[in-house]
Specification:
129 residues; mainly alpha
Length: 129
């Protein structure tokens, strides 16, 4: 529990949410005051008053109308995409001698993997004689 949990429960009693001495109940002690939410908390001379809780009449979602949200303009998105595509093309052109064997090796390994999986899958349905 937080440090001021007893004070929080006293404030709830003063504002009329609780009608008993909750900290005394939790600690199994005799009550300091009973059923009097207007009673002064012994820890404060002038207790703060909590205003009434304003509950909505209908359960609804109201989106915030905050115009301070930063929105990225479309031209920045397009420029980023073009620069990224350019970097990828340039990298591919510069390292094509190293990339071609890698891609060829990868494609054959991938093809072998899927063909082996397909053979295993179709082998399940074949009759054994």
């Amino acid at each position: 529990m937080s440090i001021g949990w007893a004070n929080n429960l006293d404030l709830l009693a003063q504002s009329g949410v609780l009608d008993f001495d909750a900290p005394a109940y939790v600690l199994s002690q005799p009550p300091r005051y009973v059923g009097n939410p207007g009673a002064v908390n012994p820890l404060y001379d002038n207790p703060p008053r909590v205003s009434g809780f304003e509950q909505p009449k209908v359960d609804e979602f109201k989106p915030s109308k905050d115009d301070n949200i930063v929105k990225t303009p479309a031209w920045k998105k397009w420029l980023f995409g073009l620069i990224t595509a350019g970097v990828l093309v340039f990298t591919g052109y510069k390292f094509k001698t190293k990339l071609k064997p890698l891609v060829k090796n990868w494609s054959t390994k991938t093809g072998n993997f899927f063909s082996k999986c397909w053979k295993n899958f179709t082998g399940i349905f074949k009759r054994k004689s």
